[in-house]
């Protein structure tokens, strides 16, 4: 009987333990933990169905630009992406970018092809019999196809020693350009004017970039030939001597019919009066000399390496939004002529600081300002359109003038400047009136020195050198006093 009573008493003790405060708190904690666990489980199941992603990269490597989305939305016919990868060798970064296209438009599909097992399919896209690299992406539509090699998906800068540096990711840029070609099949023709030791696009590795943007680049000697009817854009890139009057007349006739022209000029070529006649016909002129940038915040460490302000323009806005610096070595100036036609609209692209000045006497090597210097701010890039208004299909002449012959050349210590290339490519797109490609640029990984003025230098210096250390000292002193009186 004692054992039974003891057992009953033990059962009663267990029953009473459920009424204690400790059990109630523990039960509440267990229920909350279970509820949180079930909630997280349900949330994961829901999110797995939608696969939301947040692009945490500074340049938005895995986010399509608004212009790309417009291009993708306009694809009405089937487009097939062929990924030439062996099993297990897929480019995961590229696949994530492709998924953004596939999710946006059901007319776009991806097919992974092993090039070793499907040589016939690969040879269909190898029209030049040069071979297609493994890891390439082929974009095929009803109007044609484009092959994007693994090297095309990244931007590299090559220095004078033959080394290379990864400067940016250009997957979206290449895919969108290929998608445009596959949908339209049109390839505008750019003619480089030659005959005076001009700098050629291929000389600095720019021609492949232009061709990948669906342009055909050819050379043209205006002394020997007229401007072909298929010419979309003319480029005069740093001629070492002035053009002839006959060449100027051909270019002016081309512009009168709504032609497009890009001019890059260098002060080392001397004054170019006939080339300036073309400029003056549209209300602007090159100012001979070279820029001395006297504001350190507007330089890359030397007065002749100017980092200009990017003015509000369709060409420069995408570069400014991506915070990609443009670097102009030994730039000249551009100014408006006293008189121009009312139909012409001029807009600046690149300007110096107010502290800069243009050295017109190039035999004077002292960087201190002299009387013959032109005061800043100096305009280094400008556009002209005529007429400034358009009615129906009326042709519109467009000019982009940049007063820096070294825009596309590699710069010592920096190599090729991604911002310069983007500025050039945006200029080509603006001349061709292709707004959908203006902002689809490479995701830059390039950084120039931080631009801060003298006030900012003093302000940040006071914070770092005085205020922050003083804050630590005061905090430590207060803690020491409190502990001393414990």
Folded structure, characterized:
The chain is α+β, with helices and mostly antiparallel strands and 486 residues long. The protein has 2 domains: 126 residues, Glutaredoxin (3-Layer(aba) Sandwich); 250 residues, Rossmann fold. Helix content is 34%, strand content 20%. It has 12 helices and 22 strands. Helix 8 runs parallel beside helix 9. The radius of gyration is 32 Å and the shape is flat.
What does the secondary structure layout of this molecule look like, with pairings?
Blueprint: H1 2-17, H2 21-50, H3 66-73, E1 79-84, H4 92-104, E2 108-113, H5 119-124, E3 137-140, E4 145-148, E5 154-158, E6 164-169, H6 171-184, E7 189-193, H7 207-212, E8 216-220, E9 231-237, H8 245-256, E10 260-264, H9 273-280, E11 284-287, E12 290-292, E13 305-306, E14 309-310, H10 317-321, E15 328-329, E16 333-336, E17 345-351, E18 357-359, E19 374-375, E20 379-386, E21 397-402, H11 418-431, E22 443-444, H12 454-484
Parallel strand pairs: 1-2, 7-8, 7-9, 9-10, 10-21
Antiparallel strand pairs: 1-3, 3-4, 5-6, 6-22, 11-16, 12-18, 13-15, 14-17, 17-20, 18-19, 20-21
Helix pairs in contact: 8-9
Key phrases:
486 residues; alpha+beta; Glutaredoxin; Rossmann fold; 2 domains; 8-stranded mixed beta sheet; 12 helices; 22 strands
Short structural summary:
By secondary structure, the chain is of the alpha+beta class. The chain is built from twelve helices and 22 strands.
- Contiguous low-pLDDT stretches (5 residues minimum) are none
CATH topology of the largest domain: Rossmann fold
Radius of gyration computed on alpha carbons:
32 Å
What is the terminal-to-terminal distance? Answer: 63 Å
The outline comes out as flat
Number of domains: 2
Strand order of the largest sheet: 8-7-9-10-21-20-17-14
């Amino acid at each position: 009987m004692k054992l039974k009573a003891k057992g009953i008493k033990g059962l009663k003790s267990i029953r009473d333990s459920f009424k204690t405060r400790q059990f109630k708190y523990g039960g509440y904690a267990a229920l909350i933990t279970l509820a949180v666990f079930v909630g997280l489980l349900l949330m994961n199941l829901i999110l797995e169905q939608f696969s939301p992603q947040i692009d945490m990269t500074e340049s938005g490597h895995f986010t399509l630009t608004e212009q790309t989305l417009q291009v993708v939305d306009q694809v009405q016919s089937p487009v097939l992406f062929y990924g030439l990868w062996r099993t297990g060798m897929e480019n995961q970064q590229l696949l994530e970018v492709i998924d953004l296209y596939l999710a946006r438009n059901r007319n776009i599909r991806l097919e992974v092809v092993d090039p070793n097992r499907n040589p016939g399919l690969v040879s269909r896209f190898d029209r030049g019999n040069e071979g297609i690299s493994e890891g390439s992406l082929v974009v095929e539509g009803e109007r044609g196809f484009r092959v994007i090699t693994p090297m095309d998906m990244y931007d590299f800068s090559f220095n004078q020693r033959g080394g290379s540096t990864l400067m940016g990711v250009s997957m979206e840029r290449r895919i969108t350009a290929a998608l445009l070609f596959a949908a339209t099949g049109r390839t505008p023709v750019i003619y480089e004017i030659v005959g005076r030791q001009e700098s050629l696009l291929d000389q600095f590795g720019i021609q492949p970039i232009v061709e990948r943007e669906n342009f055909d680049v050819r050379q043209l000697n205006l002394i020997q030939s007229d401007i072909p009817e298929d010419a979309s854009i003319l480029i005069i890139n740093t001629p070492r001597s002035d053009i002839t009057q006959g060449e100027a007349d051909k270019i002016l006739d081309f512009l009168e019919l709504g032609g497009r022209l890009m001019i890059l000029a260098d002060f080392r070529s001397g004054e170019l009066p006939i080339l300036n006649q073309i400029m003056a016909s549209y209300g602007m002129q090159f100012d001979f000399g070279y820029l001395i940038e006297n504001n350190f915040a507007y330089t890359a460490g030397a007065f002749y390496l100017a980092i200009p302000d990017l003015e509000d323009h369709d060409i420069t806005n995408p570069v400014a939004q991506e915070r990609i610096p443009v670097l102009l070595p030994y730039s000249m100036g551009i100014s408006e002529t006293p008189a121009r036609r009312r139909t012409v609209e001029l807009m600046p692209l690149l300007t110096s600081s107010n502290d800069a000045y243009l050295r017109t006497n190039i035999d004077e090597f002292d960087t201190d300002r002299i009387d013959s210097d032109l005061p800043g701010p100096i305009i280094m890039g400008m556009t002209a359109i005529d007429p400034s208004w358009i009615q129906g299909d009326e042709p519109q002449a467009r000019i982009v003038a940049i007063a820096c012959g070294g825009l596309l050349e590699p710069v010592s210590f920096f190599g090729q400047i991604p911002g310069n290339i983007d500025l050039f490519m945006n200029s080509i797109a603006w001349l061709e009136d292709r707004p959908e490609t203006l902002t689809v640029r490479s995701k830059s990984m390039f950084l120039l020195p931080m631009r801060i003025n003298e006030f900012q230098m003093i302000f940040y210096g006071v914070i770092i050198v005085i205020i922050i250390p003083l804050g630590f000292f005061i905090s430590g002193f207060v803690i020491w006093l409190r502990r001393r009186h414990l």
